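Why does residue order matter? Because the sequence determines the fold. Keep that principle in mind as you read this record.
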Amino acid sequence: MEDKENTSRDLFRGALEMMILESLRRQPAHGYALVQHIQQRSNNLLQVEEGSLYPALQRLLKAKLVRAEWTVSSTTNRRVRMYQITKTGLRHLEREVSSFDRMLEGIQMVLGPTRSTENS
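Structure:
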């Protein structure tokens, strides 16, 4: 159980923000829906805690990558804060995903099987 907590804390900086932005690119959502979407898309491999989600959303709001407005949920009839990605957020997401893809490719090269060129 402790390893799971350490793994989620050790995600590289910006991973949660990227996943939030990608979720919001698909459709506006409130916090609970974001948690559910990330969990479902990762086949339950990733668990996002409120203690991580809301600070990340605040960072995204401050950077103007998302905007938020209060509304009433049609399912629960309670006030919820709906988040929506901005145009700046879309551009930021594209750059971050591209950078992540390059980093992942490099990591895979280092961790993957070596292609040895032994002398014959």
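The beta strands are 66-72, 79-85.
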